[in-house]
Amino acid sequence: MNVGIVAQRGNRRAARLAADLRSRLDEAGVAVRFDEETARTLDTAGVDVTAFATCDLVVSIGGDGTFLFAARGARDTPILGINLGEVGFLNAVPPESAVEAVMAEVEAHRDGKLRTRNVPRLAARVDDWEGEPAVNEVVVQGPRRGRGGGVDVEVRVDDALYTSGHVDGILVATPTGSTAYNLSEGGPLVHPRVDGLVVTEMCADGGMPPLVVPPDSEVTVSLSGAPSGVVVSDGRNAYEVVPPVDVHVARTDPPVRLAGPEADFFEALNKLD
C-alpha cells in the first residue's frame, strides 16, 4: 500500500505531524510518498504531486489550500484531510487524532472496506482547450479587476439566458467552493449535501442575484467588449482568452473522493471571519 502525504508549506507543526505519520506507517509496512516541498522540509526524497494519483490514500495536513493542492495531484485517490486549526471545510480530522485516523483508513483499505464521499469538480472549456479541474470555483473575468478592467457578458444556463451586462467577472462554484471566493463576492453559502452549482456575478453594473442551478447544468459565459479575458481554476493556472469568446463551465470527472469522518459544516462556519 502507498500513502501520499502533503504538509502545509512553511508550517513546522504540519511537518512534525508528517514525520510522525511516516514513522507509524513505516512500522505498519506502508510505503510513504511526500510531495517535493514536504520532502525538502523533512530532508528526504519527494515526488511531484501528480504522482499521488497512483497512491492508495493521500493525507493532507493543513488547511483547505493544502487540500486543494493535494487534490490536484490525487485525481480519484481518496484524500483524508487533517485540519491544523483553520476553517477546514475539507479537513475533518484534528491533529491530535491524525495518526489514529490515518491508520484506521489504512486498515479499512486493507480489508476492502474503505468508504469515501464524492465532492464535485468543475472544468472550463474553450474550443479545444479544457482547464484544470477545480474543487472550489472557476472564474471567468476581464483582463483585471476594478475600474476599466471589466468585460461585457451574457450568461446562459443550458442555453437559457440568465443575465447580461458589464461585470468584473462571473464565478461558478461548487457547494464546497460556496464558502470560499464565492462568499467574498456576495454569493450564497450552500450546504455540502445540496447538489448544485452556484453562479455569481462579480461587481456587476446592475445584474441579477446569485443563482443555484442543477448539478448537471452547463454555464456558458460569452465575453465581449474587452481586449482580453481570463479563465482561472481555484485561483491558479490563468488562461487568457480573446473576446468575443464563449467559455463553457460544467462538472467534470473524476470527483474528489473524501476519506475519513465528515467535517462539521456549521462548526467550520463559526471560524469564518
From TrEMBL:
<dbReference type="InterPro" id="IPR017437">
    <property type="entry name" value="ATP-NAD_kinase_PpnK-typ_C"/>
</dbReference>
<dbReference type="Pfam" id="PF01513">
    <property type="entry name" value="NAD_kinase"/>
</dbReference>
<dbReference type="GO" id="GO:0005737">
    <property type="term" value="C:cytoplasm"/>
</dbReference>
<dbReference type="GO" id="GO:0003951">
    <property type="term" value="F:NAD+ kinase activity"/>
</dbReference>
<dbReference type="GO" id="GO:0019674">
    <property type="term" value="P:NAD+ metabolic process"/>
</dbReference>
<keyword id="KW-0418">Kinase</keyword>
<dbReference type="InterPro" id="IPR002504">
    <property type="entry name" value="NADK"/>
</dbReference>
<keyword id="KW-0521">NADP</keyword>
<keyword id="KW-0067">ATP-binding</keyword>
<keyword id="KW-0963">Cytoplasm</keyword>
<feature type="binding site">
    <location>
        <begin position="136"/>
        <end position="137"/>
    </location>
    <ligand>
        <name>NAD(+)</name>
    </ligand>
</feature>
<keyword id="KW-0808">Transferase</keyword>
<dbReference type="InterPro" id="IPR016064">
    <property type="entry name" value="NAD/diacylglycerol_kinase_sf"/>
</dbReference>
<feature type="binding site">
    <location>
        <begin position="179"/>
        <end position="184"/>
    </location>
    <ligand>
        <name>NAD(+)</name>
    </ligand>
</feature>
<feature type="binding site">
    <location>
        <begin position="64"/>
        <end position="65"/>
    </location>
    <ligand>
        <name>NAD(+)</name>
    </ligand>
</feature>
<protein>
    <recommendedName>
        <fullName>NAD kinase</fullName>
        <ecNumber>2.7.1.23</ecNumber>
    </recommendedName>
</protein>
<dbReference type="GO" id="GO:0006741">
    <property type="term" value="P:NADP+ biosynthetic process"/>
</dbReference>
<comment type="function">
    <text>Involved in the regulation of the intracellular balance of NAD and NADP, and is a key enzyme in the biosynthesis of NADP. Catalyzes specifically the phosphorylation on 2'-hydroxyl of the adenosine moiety of NAD to yield NADP.</text>
</comment>
<dbReference type="GO" id="GO:0046872">
    <property type="term" value="F:metal ion binding"/>
</dbReference>
<feature type="binding site">
    <location>
        <position position="168"/>
    </location>
    <ligand>
        <name>NAD(+)</name>
    </ligand>
</feature>
<keyword id="KW-0520">NAD</keyword>
<feature type="binding site">
    <location>
        <position position="166"/>
    </location>
    <ligand>
        <name>NAD(+)</name>
    </ligand>
</feature>
<feature type="active site" description="Proton acceptor">
    <location>
        <position position="64"/>
    </location>
</feature>
<dbReference type="Pfam" id="PF20143">
    <property type="entry name" value="NAD_kinase_C"/>
</dbReference>
<dbReference type="GO" id="GO:0005524">
    <property type="term" value="F:ATP binding"/>
</dbReference>
<dbReference type="InterPro" id="IPR017438">
    <property type="entry name" value="ATP-NAD_kinase_N"/>
</dbReference>
<keyword id="KW-0547">Nucleotide-binding</keyword>
<comment type="similarity">
    <text>Belongs to the NAD kinase family.</text>
</comment>
